[in-house]
User: What shape does this take?
Amino acid sequence: MNGGLWKSTSRLAIVAAAGLFAGGMAMPSAKAADLGGDCCADLEERVAELEATTARKGNRKMSLTITGQVDRMIMWWDDGRSSKAYYGLDNTNSSSRFSLLGEARVSPAIKMGFEIMLELESLGASTRVSQLDEDGKIGAQIRGTAAPGGSNNEPGNDAYFGDARRVAWWVEHKDIGRLTIGRYEGAGAVATLDLAGIAVFANASFRNINNNFFLRGSGGQYYGMVWGDIVDPAVAAAQRTELLRYDTPSLMGFIGSASIAEAGDYWGVMLRYAGEFSGFRIAAGIGYEEIHDRATPATLDPTAAFYAGPKPDEAAWGAALSILHVPTGLFVQGHYQAFDPGGPHVTSAYWNDTGGTSLATNNKKDANQWLVQAGVSKNYFGLGNTMVYGEYGRASDWGADTLAGRSFVGTTATSCPNPAGNSVCTATIANFTAVAGVIGTDVRVWGVGIGQDIDAAASTLYLAYRNMDADITCVTANCGSATTGATAGKLPTEAIQVIIGGAVVKF
Assistant: This one.
């Protein structure tokens, strides 16, 4: 909604008076002369009541737009040993959210504005649920992202809008570019640039659907690791954080960006292009980022080795290319990203770096991820574009360390901070199969799907399928598990299949 609602009493009075006139049409005309002298007082009182209950923006200088979306779905999963359907989940591929946008023109060349984007902070979301918890609470606790306490299954236990994705202001000169300050995405490794319109249900990330689902073994056992441990860290074009960012004006379709964040320990650059010629629409980008930011430990001790040891020296880069043939709607799009953790260091918590405080054991491997999607996106029926696609991708070594490898526990005690000194709590889990010495992880992903835009309702209906299977290599036989018949150094795992169907409704 652009602009503010009426604020003046006179305008509301006119509307109210018109309503009174229309309502009095059926009355005898003589009644019009019976209106007493207190009629205007009654009218002003009603106007005051309307003003007290009417939303309006604060000033007439800055425009105000409210926009957003609701993206809810049904998810069916099969982890190779069991299956089930969950209803009404938030689709984290493109979460439910709303934004307040504003801008004002300072001069013919200069504009200022702001953005506040709030995302649904819902436990009933696709990244939070697991085989053992349809509410999305226990899974979060086991992975160390929530304080212990168990799950409350009461249906009235409400979710809330609590995740500030973006809170920033900006100033832009048409010839110089835009400067943004606040919480926003940084410049950095570029992921898939979606020309087909399928990102709302087929995101470039592999973890947005079954992030918290536990891997299963051939004997039916639950391993102490989830799929989110061994795939990409959401494949963001860098991370959302508090920053200073600069974007150039578009020059022949090119836009350059640079950002610096935290205490100057996190920075990135990227170059993107968008253009169309000879019936082909093209989008491309490449970006690079460096991280030297330490994660904050649970216990602050300036004399500890955590602060005295070397800071993270991590780097990541990513490139993407998307091509759409406009007359036919045929498209192909994809990206490649790579992460270099540098040498031994205390954890940064960026890019799945969860190594802890020990310099002797935090030796994360180089990791990479790529994805290719292809299909057709065209308006065949007059409703809006119909999107049909297939996809294939791989994520390598996101859950692996060098030297002794990475270990995933099967039983832990409740403590905060946890025994390793990390900055998160660990909840009590029992009878999960521990996995030890992981030095290689390779996840293969393929999927198909269909979507239908409903332009008249600013909505998209979708149905999508993804299959994921993993090869996990360890320095120990059977990866420390008790599974029989396994190849030495290999962890037998089951594939997981996920089908999602729902709609995103925009406003």
User: Anything to note?
Assistant: Confidence is low (pLDDT under 50) at residues 1-37, 139-154, 413-427. The domain at 61-498 is CATH 2.40.160.10 (Porin).
